[in-house]
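Hi R.,

Here's the chain you asked about this morning:
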Amino acid sequence: MKPLLLLLLSMLPFISDPDFFTNQLKHPRVKEAYDSKGKIVEELLKLNNIHSSKFDLFLRALKKEKKLEVWAKNKNEATFKLIKTYDFCETSGVLGPKRRSGDRQIPEGFYYITTFNPYSDYHLSFKINYPNAADLVHSDKLNPGGDIFIHGDCVTIGCIPLGADNINIKELYILAAKAKSAGGTTHVYIFPCYMNEENYKDLQTKYADNKNLLDFWANLKPVYNAFEKSKTIPGITVDRRGFYQLLKPEK
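And here is the predicted structure, written out as tokens:
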């Protein structure tokens, strides 16, 4: 279990890969996405005073509201700003974490993009690192599931689809690929809902008979609060019990 203690979910190495975006453009769907949406992406970044080749990206998903927020910041800045919000085209499962293959659940927790797929069955997609260290402790030991993507089209059995017309995934794929080229790790935080105090109390009321679920959400809440307060990615570890721990706890 020692590796769990050493996993710093928000302190991954930042390795610049300037050829990544150029190489992505060699794929027909990415090239078409850039030709049709590249100027829109550049204008979005410019409007928010974000340097198009020196920025970090952060994605925050809210399952109940079916929203995917896109946050960005310049490399030389500390705090992120919200630059765009996309709607989930469809959703599956219920509020709560993913625990096994085939449960149709969209995960909840703290992830990052691991793989870009320019030949996705759903036009374009990128994969997140589910199951992470916390999931491996709590999920089915033999088959916790996997292959969780943010993708185009409008079908899902646990992924986040952004629309059958593929307009949104084209924009987001270009943004994420540019951030990757700049040497950034794009974190993807997935919450049951906007976890403000009113919504959190509502969860506690509606799910009062499900202690395990409330304990799980109570473990997510400090990370939600930390980002809301600072607009920075908090340092997180996973302890031996499979619970997230803030490196700098809330005061």
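One quick note: The first helix runs from residue 2 to 6.

Cheers,
M.
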